[in-house]
Amino acid sequence: MKKILVIEDNLEVRENLVELLELSNYDVQSAENGKIGVKKALEFIPDLILCDVMMPELDGFGVLKILEGRKELKGIPFVFLTAKAEKEDFRKGMNLGADDYITKPFDDVELLDAVEMRLKKSTKGIGSMDGSFLQSGKAEKELEELVDGKEVRHYIKKEAVIREGEKPRYVFLVKKGMIKQVRSNDSGKELIVRIFTEGDYFGYQLSSVDDSYPESAKALVDSSLVLIPGADFEKTLQASREVGLLFNRFLSEDLAEKEKRLIHLAYDSTRKKVAEALVYFESKVGTDSFELPREDLAALAGVAKESSIRTLTEFKNDKLIQIDKNRITILDREELASLPY
Predict the structure, then answer these.
(1) Does one domain contain both 12 and 82?
(2) CB-based burial of residue 90 (10 Å sphere; 0-12 exposed, 13-18 middle, 19+ buried)?
(3) How far apart, in whole angstroms, are the C-alpha atoms of residue 327 and residue 29?
(4) By C-alpha distance, which of 27, 46, 51 is closest to 100?
(5) Residues 210 and 314 in one domain
(6) 53: in domain
(7) Cα–Cα distance between 341 and 42 in angstroms, integer?
(8) Which of 198, 218, 302, 309 is deepest in the core (most CB within 10 A)?
(9) Does 254 map to a domain?
(10) What CATH number is associated with residue 309?
């Protein structure tokens, strides 16, 4: 029996929801405010959370932010119940990581359909900017149809895919290889801000606006990309709420990851920057042994090449890594990830 937690401050709405869900054969617990809801979520470990937005003590946004930081609750579908249909509420919730929202008053059938859908496929588990591709029904089918028959273009190592200042023409799907998203300063020094691997989409952020790319993208290794015309992508995005929600989530994850990395680059020591770069690259390639040219490591860490080489030698002497030419093998990931600033 699936477990559902209802967090709702209105007694009548809360009781009606509990009764409806229990009649539909769900194991239901409820909470009358956000603080109690967080406590019950940690005790109950539900399969899905329905949460009101506007509540005393702790609102729905606060509940979501707290729960997202708890490892044992990560991945549980989170659906907002809101009396407002304003885009600001919706956007804020999705940027924080919500999977869906239902506007009150709602139809019983609509609510049960939404609950059933979210229990069958958690948006948190159907894709991410870190390469785990889609496994949902509707979104997967629509994206497969979008990609089907599109041009596949091959890029050799270091070849430009996107040039800074270009007008957007395509959304790209990495079929094979790795792509680095690069930001350059006035002197031409490169900083790698993101790496895309198999299953990742990129270039979609500007596909529907008359703007130009603020960053460039280059093949880190020989790569194959599916080129999706921007107009086709935009059409699918507008026609499918599932796909729209998914890419909204992708965008928020992308921005959050960029911001996190840039903060590290601004304030961390050289050792910490290089360690973070190694751990990040390992998470992208999915293995603790990989080839990474020193200039790319330096660009990923935001340090001079000489500094990256010197730091790698220190890590080798500390037995945190092994080095064989361009191949680096991480021996103690936890130690690297927890180095002090």
Answers:
(1) yes
(2) buried
(3) 52
(4) 51
(5) no
(6) yes
(7) 31
(8) 302
(9) no
(10) 1.10.10.10
Map residue 10 onto helix, strand or coil: coil
DSSP label at residue 183: E
Number of structural domains (the chain) is 3
Q: Which amino acid appears at position 91 of this protein?
A: R
Instruction: Report if residue 180 sits inside a domain.
Output: yes
| Domain stops at, among 103, 125, 147 | 125
pTM: 0.60
Other Cβ atoms within 10 Å of 260 Cβ, number = 12
| Contacting residues for 224 by C-beta, under 8 A, at least 6 apart | 152, 153, 154, 155, 174, 175, 176, 177
Residue 38: CA atoms inside 13 Å, Cβ hemisphere, count? 17
Residue 130's pLDDT is 36
The answer to whether the beta carbons of residues 292 and 276 sit under 8 Å apart is: no
* pLDDT for residue 92: 59
Helix/strand/coil for 13: helix
Q: Which helix (H) or strand (E) holds 118?
A: helix 108-120
Upstream peptide bond of 56 is cis (omega within 30 degrees of 0): no
Residues 112 and 12 in one domain: yes
pLDDT digits over 199-228, tens only?
889 988 654 445 788 889 999 999 999 999
Same domain, 142 and 228: yes
Which residues, given as ranges, of the chain have pLDDT below 70? 71, 84-97, 121-137, 205-210, 253, 256, 261, 341
Domain that holds residue 301: 268-337
Q: Is 302 left (phi over 0), alpha (psi -120 to 50) or beta?
A: left
Q: Express each pLDDT in 90-119 by its tens digit.
A: 555 555 567 777 878 888 888 888 888 888
